[in-house]
């Protein structure tokens, strides 16, 4: 008799497999990222299909197979309808899911990562804050949870406490340089005091607390640019 397991998961993606089945990637609370077979999910009228759509929080019963595990049953806990009905939110959520999938390995359970992704989807589904801003803040928290936390308090060159002035951020070095030390860092970008403060807040507060954070658009653009560069560097290296 096959063993069965119950868990909660966030559906990352789903692909057609053979004629009638689907391959589904899910990040689960109990087992980390796993690939599952959804038998008959491509058939017309399949009841399972509606419960394994990407970008859904689902409760799963997993059946252990000889070669592959498959979904015995699935019930949607949250379909994030508000996200799917808003193009900006959908694009932000899609990018978060893609980044998550690229940087998180299979079969490595991490309750912090699960909670972080679930919180992000929950927050953007009901927040009036621009989804792109929340995506930037979440991305920084996500990188920190993976061990890529940037240094935002002391200069990476001289180790002195950063002064409240215009400093320089290096994605490849993972932190900030003071004006003097930045002269030897050719791939660094200017980061003013407000932008550094926003990034520090992102690392010290919950995403729920940050949902009402207010700043000028130019500051959001600087922060978003710096975090995106850090994200891209860690994805490609």
Describe this structure in words.
- A hairpin with a 6-residue loop joins strand 4 (57-63) and strand 5.
- The chain has a five-stranded antiparallel sheet with strand order 3-2-1-4-5.
- The mean pLDDT is 94.
- It has two domains: 1-126, Beta Barrel (OB fold (Dihydrolipoamide Acetyltransferase, E2P)); 130-236, Recombination protein O, C-terminal domain (de novo design (two linked rop proteins), Up-down Bundle).
- It has helices spanning 81-84, 87-103, 111-126, 131-145, 193-204, 207-210, 217-236; strands at 4-17, 21-28, 32-38, 57-63, 70-78, 167-170, 175-177, 189-191.
- The chain is built from seven helices and eight strands, in the order βββββααααβββααα.
- It is α+β, with helices and mostly antiparallel strands.
Helix proportion range: 25-40%
**Shape label:** elongated
The SSE string, one letter per element, is EEEEEHHHHEEEHHH
Quote the average pLDDT.
Answer: 94
Number of domains: 2
